[in-house]
């Protein structure tokens, strides 16, 4: 079995806690001054804000985790997570196959930056392109 990079494991554990959703546990993987930017340039102060935002958009949402790619940048590690989102919109319609890409920077065992991109906004604007 291939051993996972320690910073990839931090990101993986954060994502698991986020999907529970357990924002209190998720916060333990982030630095106190973490910079979180969601699709559209929305700044989030902490994982609780992520949970609140997702609660306004989705009845529930989970990630089907794809690959993790990472690179050592000397003083930090950059970790990419890709895959798809599945769940239910706030209006009760189900969805799956919603692509996402998350970029993390991990420094000294904590996530210091998180950038999030996904198809949700496009799918909400043009529902016929969404897969159910």
Write up what this structure looks like.
With 132 residues, the protein is α+β, with helices and mostly antiparallel strands. The chain has a single domain, classed as Nuclear Transport Factor 2, Chain: A. It is 27% helix and 48% strand. It contains 4 helices and 6 strands; from the N terminus they run ααββαββββα. It has helices at residues 6-19, 23-27, 47-57, 120-125; strands at residues 30-38, 42-44, 58-72, 77-89, 94-107, 110-118. The chain has a 6-stranded mixed sheet with strand order 2-1-6-5-4-3. A hairpin with a 4-residue loop joins strand 3 (58-72) and strand 4 (77-89). It is globular. The chain starts with 5 loop residues before the first helix and ends in a 7-residue tail after the last helix.
